[in-house]
Amino acid sequence: MPRFRTVLFDLDGTLTDSAPGITASVRFALKELGVTDFDDSVLYKFIGPPLIWSFKEFFAMSDERAQKGLELYRLNYNERGGKYDSKLYDGLEESLRRMRDAGVRLGVATAKPEITAREVIEHFGLDKYFECVSGGNPDEKRCGKRDIILHAMDLLGEKEPAKSLMAGDREYDVTGAREAGVASIGVLYGFGSREELENAGAEAFAASPEEIADYVLG
């Protein structure tokens, strides 16, 4: 019998290696804003947390300037194909299939705008595995990971957080899960480090999609 009845997945760094599209879109936004003096490593810090927060946190932007950065990012990401500049992790589909066939309900919980997340999931043919996609809403009012996880559970009709698991590669996934009363497994093949995930309090770790399925199915 599976350890969990419901498993929620982050998108970037957990289902897809989306670094090329995201970093190129951040670079585009910064260039348009006249920001040129930065180390490329900072671009990868935008993968995971809400974008407006990232522009303010990493470049000390005002609310207005960060909003402009978000709009420029989305121009490149949504309208110029950046959202599809990614790939599925090896072994992912088979792992999803194993869990689905064992009766585990699967959902997506991502800070990415919900409509964009749905488009990416459908582009890669993953919609046959996931019963719901919960993401940030257009005005960014639902952008915290806790709220996104709780929304996913509502969509699935899951009333018992203790029977749910959140799989993600960044500290925001782990802390959001804890705040929602959900267990978490830290993904080591994504964009976060083991130290980051350990410090956030992840209860288990997976070095591959197969290890997520192994943990869930016991």
Automatic annotation (TrEMBL):
GO CC annotations, alphabetized: cytosol
Keyword list, A-Z: Hydrolase
A Pfam family assignment: HAD_2
Classification via InterPro entries: HAD-like_hydrolase_sf (IPR050155), HAD-like_sf (IPR036412), HAD_2 (IPR041492), HAD_sf (IPR023214), PGP-like_dom2 (IPR023198)
Coiled coil (residue ranges): none
Entry's Gene Ontology molecular function annotations: hydrolase activity; protein tyrosine kinase activity
Entry protein name: HAD hydrolase-like protein
